[in-house]
Amino acid sequence: MSSDVVGRWTVSLADGIHKVEFEHGTLSGKRVIRVDGKEIYRVDWMFKLVGTEYFNIGKVKCSININATTGFAYEYSLLVNGQVFEIFTENQRKILNTWIVTIAGNPLRVALEKDTLDIWVNGEKAETTAEFVENGTETHFEICHHSAYIKASSSGNRKSGIVYTFILLHNLSIYLSIYLSIYLSIYLYIQRTKQALLTGAIFPNVCRYRPFCL
């Protein structure tokens, strides 16, 4: 790991959680930006040691500001969508609801943008269908061939506002198909074993008609 790493931030967006890393060489002016471990920007030498570097995380605009403090010390700040990182993070907590669900042993991240009602599954925007129900709305979508929906209902408390509940409906047809496949395999194994016993394929030295053996 480079000793020039001066800043690390974890940015929570609708399409997932991203890690931003920034290197700054205070002698060479080197600047390197990595997002999720992938290098997206590099300058190995720069005369000016302060300034701003711009980059994107997907469609989200970001920038890193480099400011001199005292002597040869510098401070670094990340802006996301024009907001200081700390303020952006706080706002994201207000407009973004996330759930982690495990299907077939794989953890999946489901995110709801409350301001747009868009739903994201592991970074992919899901196709949704909304309908009005008693005491709220339900937004339906699919996740790994399973039906799911997010229900929005009133909490009855003005301070709490709307409560969002994620519900996963397991696809019974998948489990039924697996069960039938296992049952059929066992049935065929039993039938083959019976046939082998009758023909003496398993115990060739045992007479099939014992009373007539000499």
UniProtKB/TrEMBL annotation:
Protein name listed in UniProt: Fas apoptotic inhibitory molecule 1
Stored InterPro entries: FAIM1, FAIM1_dom_sf
Keywords in alphabetical order: Membrane, Transmembrane, Transmembrane helix
Swiss-Prot/TrEMBL GO biological process terms: negative regulation of extrinsic apoptotic signaling pathway via death domain receptors
Segments traversing the membrane: 162-190
One Pfam short name: FAIM1
Keyword Protein transport: no
